[in-house]
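Re: weekly structure request thread

Next one in the queue (685 aa):
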Amino acid sequence: MLSLGSGGAKSTKPSFVSYVTPEEIKSEKDPPKQEKHPDLLPGEVEFCSANPILKYTQDDLSQRGVFGTLFCTNFRVTFISDEKPQEKTDKTFKNKLYGENDIPLMCVDHIYGVYDEKRKLITGGLVKNKYPSKMIIHCKDLRVFQFSLTFSKEEDAKKIFQGIAHHCLEEKSLKCVFAFSYMGTPSPGTDLSFCRGFHCKNKPKLSIVLTVNSTFTLTSIFFFSFFFRMINAVAHNHLYSVKTEDLSESLPNIQDIQQSYNKFKQFFLIENSTDFWLSDVKWFSSLESSGWLDIIRQCLQKAVEVVECLEKDNTNVLITEEEGTDLCCVISSLAQIMLDPYYRTLMGFQSLVQKEWVAGCHAFLDRCNHLHQKDKEYHSPVFLLFLECVWQLVHQHSPAFQFSETYLTVLSDSVHVPVFSTFLFNSSHHRESVMKAESPLAQSGPLSCPTVWDWSVQFDSKAQNFFFNPLYLEKVKHDRAVRKPHKPKHQRNLSLPSTAFKTPPKKGFFKDETDSLKKMLRVKRLSRWRGSPDAPAATTREFFESWQHRPLDYHGLLLPCLDGPAVHIWMQRYLRWIPEVYILGGGSVAVMTKLMELLSQVQDLKRVLEQRDSSQAAKLDHRPYFQHRLLSFDSSGRLSSSFPFAYTCYRSFKPIIPTGLMQSLMVTDSLASQEDEASSVVSFV
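Done, posted below.
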């Protein structure tokens, strides 16, 4: 650990000689150290590097940092420290593809440069000019990196800065993404491109949650042949009672979602302690004003309305939107999670994402802006919005879900890892055609990239245990050897097959056809059917309160509480990189440890009872029980609330606020004015 202006900094630069000790001058006569290089993945190529680079530790008071070498490859930006590694500790939760000092190129959100102490957002035009003294990188997983370029040779500093800016920010073609260089092959059985089969049982009507695929289209002749086949299917299934909801009218559009999230995420991209404490005074009100939590609430509310129609009123629902592959995917997926316990298991949830989002042609490439397109009209974190809604359900009804919040956090990170084919394309047809065309082995077969569901690519089996919720209340089958295929009551139909479309449609084409379909079916709008604009919320509350009075069943219908305080911030995802909020020996990991200890005692008592009475044991075997997965982490007293993500902390767990800063905070907030002003500093424990 080095500090600017201290006697411990090692450098051969003339501007730094006045701080070098005699021992360091003697060490300069020693043979030069062997250059360090990153361990490259298959297909990874090193573009440029610079040394020495100072990596700041986000402490604006002391400006401490670590010297090392900064690299840019076709996969990542990576920093390797010059310091000798301290006592090696085995990390239980370690990503095989990238570490804590690695930034996948696709994960870079923004780059800022400091020129003459002025911070500027880096764009293509600025890259061609002089390099900054300091480079700040904001990541899509909310990490923040700061590098000083002043200690390197001017040529090296300029090259590394321009290289990183070019490969992270410049618009590129799809074939330049690292996935096409990474020749990984998924393990057998990891391809979940299937769609889970649906059957109706004991239901007179087939419930539809309809989306319209606008990524590709057919010739008009094929479309109308298929359109009339769909109408015939509707007639044969007696779908004369259909409620409809146009999500384009009742929910924010993708631009509103993007703008809201841009405001929301700024409160978690912390560059130094001062920024954090300045934002702390009005933190909650600022988060609320961004509108992001309200959008989450609206989506959950709309999904509950759909579930109410299907479950309570036994009627069919037709949901539409202009594109058909954004909010339709969100609402349809949430409704199925609330209705069907299979989608609350790990495999069930993955199959849901695969069929509703991947096979359902959600435009991941455009929405996630993997190619850094300048047109911002199509950029929007729609899939992250879905994961946020799922996290709310997991947070409120933890025993109902087999997967943990760590699984959801890792899944949100994996969207921006340029290795997997799952989130890299706009449709299944797009994936198949591009991979076949770009494969160097096109004559013998298409290029094969792993899917994100092959978790062994990123984590070993011990780390994957963190994906499972140890408090999941598993429903035991009488015969575990034979598991009949699940037959849910409700079904979602895609109106058009994704494999058939070849050319883009004209704007509004599918909206016009959907309007025609609604007229033919004489459907009623969900809002009109429910009466006044306030009626949906009132009836939904009645539906929720009625469900609350039922006996608790984690394998039945599941509804979220939508009151203001019930919608929480996804703390693990958003606060895991901010040491100021770490709780040493506390947080969710400490709570989980205590619950695991209690659960272990309950399991031991259960085994004692089973040994005493074998007949009683047979009965106990058919009761629901908690799935007991012992997570292999150390004592909770040695861990922080950011576990299992952040192990290293350079900033203090007891941050100190200077008096001047505290006084400025007191002026802006009436509550802060009540604090004691006697001491020169204020320490928060």
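The chain has a mean pLDDT of 75. The first helix runs from residue 22 to 27.
Next request, please.
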